[in-house]
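Project standup — Tuesday

K.O.: blocked on the structure for the chain from last sprint. Re-posting the sequence here as requested.
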Amino acid sequence: EGPKIILCTPIPAFKKSWGINDEIITKNIIPIQQQVAQEYNLQVIDLHSLFGDGKDTMLGDGIHPNDKGAQKMAKIIADAIKLWTLIFEHWTLISTVKAVDNCVENSCITC
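H.V.: unblocked you, prediction finished:
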């Protein structure tokens, strides 16, 4: 099946630094990511929305996460991957059961 590529939106910018601000992220970067995700059928983790308040999670520049912020990002990403895995496994199980039921109905196999 191969590797899965997951895009993550940037976390919010809590103050303007190095020519980066939250408006640039929301109006320029995230729309491009969404377009790429749609074009290549990729999953997106919306760190921008899920990261929440930047209090005590950012370095002084307001752009980069500190250790606590990096841990918060890692938890959001891990939780999303776990959820997608659970959904995929559930979907696969349902698909398998439906295929077996269909085969039994059409006398492909007998019980």
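K.O.: great, moving the ticket to review. The radius of gyration is 20 Å. The longest helix spans residues 67-105.
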